[in-house]
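=== Structure Prediction Worksheet ===
Name of assembly: unnamed complex
Input type: mixed (protein and possibly other molecules)
Chain count: three
Listed entries:
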Amino acid sequence: MRDIIANMFGTGENIVFILLSVLIISGAVLMISHTRLVQMVVSLAFVFLGLAGIYVLLEAEFVAFVQVLIYAGAVTILMVFGITMTRRDTEETQPHRPWHNALLLIGVLAFFGVLFFSIRRANFPAGEFNPGEDNTMAIGELLFTKHVIPFELLSVLLTVAFIGAIILAKREEE
Amino acid sequence: MNIVISYLLLAAILFCIGLYGALSKKNAVIVLLSIELMLNAVNLNLIAFSKYGVNPSLAGQIFSLFNITVAAAEVAVGVAILISVFRTRNTSDVVDMDTMKR
Amino acid sequence: MESVYSQYAWLILLFPLAAFVLILCVGRQAKTFAAVTGIVGTLASFVVSLLIMFERMGGGAEDYAWKEWVWLSFGETDIAMGFEVNSLTAIMLVVVTFVSLLVNVYSRGYMAEDERIGVFYAYIALFTFSMLGLVLSVNLLQLYIFWELVGVCSFLLIGFWYHKPEAIAAAKKAFIVTRIGDVGLFLGMLLLFWQMPGHSLDFLAITNAFHNGEMPGWVATAAAILIFVGAVGKSGQFPLHTWLPDAMEGPTPISALIHAATMVAAGVFLVARTFDIFLASTAALDTVAYVGGFTALFAATIAIAQNDIKRVLAYSTVSQLGYMMMALGLGTEAGKDASMYHLFTHAFFKALLFLAAGSVIHAIGKQDIREMGGLARSMKTTMWTFAAGTLALAGIVPFGGFWSKDAILAEALHEHPLLFWVGVITAFLTALYMARLFFLVFAGKPRSQYSAHESPAVMTVPLVILAVMAVAGGFAYPWIQGESLAGHLDVTTMALTTAAGVLGIALGWMLYGRPKSSEDVLAARAPWLHRLLQNKYYIDELYDAVFVKTLRTLGYLLHLIDRFIVDGAVRLVAGGSLALGRLGLRLQNGQLQTYGLVSLLGLVILIIAVAGRRYFHVG
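=== Predicted Assembly ===
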């Protein structure tokens, strides 16, 4: 493990990675541990931004851009709307479920342990990655040639979703 | 050891945190938020594999685009349902959202 | 000479059994039918018994035994059932059937107003059958079966008036106390079965084995004492005598039949039947003699202070049975003979006394002698027959009791002088309490309000017949046995017993017979002694404190164990299942997050189990 960390501090890419992961993880933990709803949403926004940075590190610029647009923008605002429209009190009062929470903690830790263990044991042969010069153009080409059917289905899905959302949230006619 | 492992570990951590939040928070909005967190972890996994995986290609990134789209749609519908339920029951507590007879 | 009638001895058993079944079939409404059937059944048995007896008297007809019916067969041992006629059983047959016949006739009058008279006759028929079966038994096992059956009939009849709680209690007491004796008999039977050559329990085989001295000494002593324990229970000897006086709660006819003449004599009969075992062990003989002698004296002292007419007679029965046991314990053929002689005469005069007492009770409805008096005027037949019985019991010449008691005491003088004096003192006390009874009931003026009239003929005729037998029985027995009367006698004993008897009666007349002495003198002079005697030496209270209370406490303890430990364990299991169920209930609470948690935990466990297994296999 020490050599991993030593290796990691070797390149600049690694330093950025470490900074971004600290941001992401602290944002996630803060989200869980805050009590006020709005603080939670703000923490989550930081997580999304951090993730966008990681995507850039992974040479997925278009996805990073979309991430900031959709997640950090639309989803976060939507959540805030949701909070404001459904609140009776701003505090997130912890439910008194000690057994539940304890077991959940154990379960989650065990699950993480399993994931950690399997990730460490796995063998990942390194392949050659050819990203192309323009990420956006490459993605666009692929979308309209190889993956056009899921693309079209996705638009149908979006239509259905927004119609459904409108109907659900509409006030009942007297 | 491969760099991809650190990305995978980061994704695993995010996923577990999101899981914990989804199963232990009382407010329905926070549960939705945690689910979003889990979906983001999945996206990270996909994109990491798209660069460092067995067959590196752009398919991972496209997959994650689709994932983001579906997640957004799901959030919209989810919040709509939540608002509608809040209107009838006047509560946004997941604990109160069951119709079992006592 | 071959005996003709003895082969038909099984008919004697058949008639009462058929009567029982018939009465049962017709039902409880058939009152007259029941009485007639009962009387006819016993009459038929009596006739056959007489025929058998007369045939034997003629000139020594052979003993006859039939044991062809194999009842139980295991390994090489067979246990058969059958019947046997010898001198001992022939006499008992006559006694049992005769008294039973008279009691059947008497009950027609005594129980006439009772609703359940049909059931009564059925029970009496069953009892007669059982008693006769006991007498005719071929081996010890068959005797034990009928022994128990007789106990059951006694229980049924004592508790006949079951709406009286005292009757129920007395029936239970009788059964339980005799049961203690029966355990001894059963153990003796097992011991004999184990030790006898060929595992035979036949009386004939027993006689042969012990007569020839083939059996080891300890077997004889142990078996004899165990068998005697059974006799102690059934014949009401000390210390198992407590049930007999309480058994007086039953109707008087059955007090006469069962608790005077027949069932209680079964103990004496048993010892006589297995006499050879006793002869082989002096320790057993001494036990029998001393227990018998002690009981005779002991019961006589209690009888002086009793106030219930039937209780006095009950203690008298216990005392006389003590005499019979004492005679058997003397260990000679003459002693055994004297014992059977006394059994014979005692059956008649004790049954007579009980039936006469029943006549009194039936007439005036009371049983306490302190409330009686002056019945001589209104119930002449009863008075004369009662007087005959009293004189017989007191042992006055020429009544039957004189000869038989004399035979016993004569033998005792030869073998055990101490017991002879015990017998003489008891004879004095016997005369005393009987005189007290007679004078308090019949003489003087009535001490309370009642109207008395003589009983109907159906009741007085048996009384007269029995009174005749009370006189004649003394002469009848030697005539039956083909011996001379004088052979039993001894001048010294005759003089002493007559003196004791006369003295007793005289004292009784002085204390209770004269007009001015109606109070109980003993109570006035020595109150503590009187209280002791009247309360039967507090033996019942002693048994209650030592045995009954201990067993009750033990039972209560076990009840507590059952309730808290055994039931507690069951409730624990049930509670555990319930708790498990309630735990499962908590999982199904409609909460999505609970379901999610359970799924997560399940997934993790599954992954660990499957992957870990592969890992450990490979590793």
